[in-house]
Structures are given as C-alpha cells and as structure tokens.
C-alpha cells in the first residue's frame, strides 16, 4: 500500500446498519457475483491516491469475515444503534487517525447497487474543477450519497448527532455545493421487494 501521506482522498463506506426493514444483513446480499458491500468496496478501491475505511456495526463479525481484504481498514462502530451520524463520526475519526493530512473524503453507503468507480472519480474531479467544498450525487430531485467533503468540513461532520446524516451539511452550505449526476442513484435496497427488483436487473 502506498504511503498514506500521498493519499489525498479518503473513502468511507457506511455499513453498520442492521437492515431492520429487510430482516437480514443487506451488506451480504448477492450482487454481481459478489455482495452489495463487497461490490461497493471493489469499485472504491479503483480510485487512485485514496484509502478506504469500512465502518461496520450490526452483524460485524459475519460482515468482516466476508470482506477479508488487506487494502482496507475495517472500523467497528459500537454505537451503531445511535444512527448514521455515529458511523460518520467513527469513519472521520479513523480517517484523521490514519492520515491527518487527508484533503477530502467521500462518504458512501453500501446499498446503492449501481454505484461505480466513475461516480467517485466524478465527485473528485468536479469538486477540483469548480473549487466547491462539497460535491454531492444528484438523483430523483435530491442530493445525497456518495458525497465528497473538503477537510474544512471534517469538524462539523464529527459533530453530527443521532439520525443526522451528511445531508445536513449539504443543505446548510448550498453555496459551496456542486451536484454530480448519478444515474440510478435513487435505487437502494431496503426491503425484499427492492432486492427482488435488483435481481431482475442483474439477470
């Protein structure tokens, strides 16, 4: 693994939820000859000059067994039940510990099956080109994950509480946000019905 001081971008994949509406760990659902989570990880690993943190929580033992990749840092969030904010805080804390000079990070989830490395690359390049501190994915008339945040926002990300997600900052700093189209970004897997539809896509 290359020297982390040269790795300007951190990618944090949030995979700590207990998939309550699905009734089984969505992270491990089969997708593209792999699983939803592993597919997201493999796409993220294609990004140069970056390092990857996966935040686990519920079902972390079986999820971590299913990953087993030396290139990534697994970070267990013991407070996952407090909501997404706790996983973002855990991920940013780990990021700053691993690489205090990191210039930006992308926060991603693990249940957007159509996420590819080009989405991550576009967030980085559009942010750089426009000079905007936040680059968020645009789909279904909203802005959401994956979203890139410049290091100047790390402190506020660390202050998120409860069910708050990174969208709070996207709404607060609209003048510093650029949107990046993510076709099919609105498709995520929360229920068995969602997964059944995805399987028909895969086939």
Automatic annotation (TrEMBL):
GO MF terms, alphabetically ordered: nucleotidyltransferase activity
Keyword Nucleotidyltransferase: yes
Keywords: Nucleotidyltransferase, Transferase
Coiled-coil regions listed: none
Domain MobA-like NTP transferase as annotated: residue spans: 12-175
Source domain of life: Bacteria
Pfam families listed in its UniProt record: NTP_transf_3 (PF12804)
Name assigned to this protein: Molybdenum cofactor cytidylyltransferase
UniProt lineage: Bacteria, Pseudomonadati, Bacteroidota, Flavobacteriia, Flavobacteriales
């Amino acid at each position: 693994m290359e020297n982390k001081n040269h790795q300007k971008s951190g990618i944090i994949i949030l995979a700590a939820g207990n998939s309550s509406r699905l009734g089984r760990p969505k992270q491990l659902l089969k997708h593209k000859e792999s699983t939803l989570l592993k597919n997201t990880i493999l796409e993220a690993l294609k990004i140069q000059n970056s390092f990857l943190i996966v935040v686990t929580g519920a079902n972390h033992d079986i999820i971590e067994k299913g990953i087993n990749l030396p290139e990534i840092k697994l970070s267990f969030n013991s407070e996952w039940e407090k909501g997404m904010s706790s996983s973002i805080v855990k991920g940013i804390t780990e990021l700053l510990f691993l690489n205090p000079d990191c210039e930006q990070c992308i926060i991603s989830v693990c249940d957007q099956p159509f996420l590819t490395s080009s989405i991550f690359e576009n967030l980085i390049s559009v942010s750089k080109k426009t000079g905007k501190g936040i680059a968020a994915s645009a789909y279904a008339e909203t802005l959401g994950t994956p979203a890139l945040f410049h290091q100047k926002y790390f402190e506020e990300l660390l202050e998120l509480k409860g069910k708050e997600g990174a969208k709070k900052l996207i709404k607060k700093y609209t003048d510093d946000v650029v949107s990046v189209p993510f076709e099919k970004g609105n498709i995520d897997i929360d229920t068995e019905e969602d997964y059944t539809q995805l399987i028909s896509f895969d086939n």
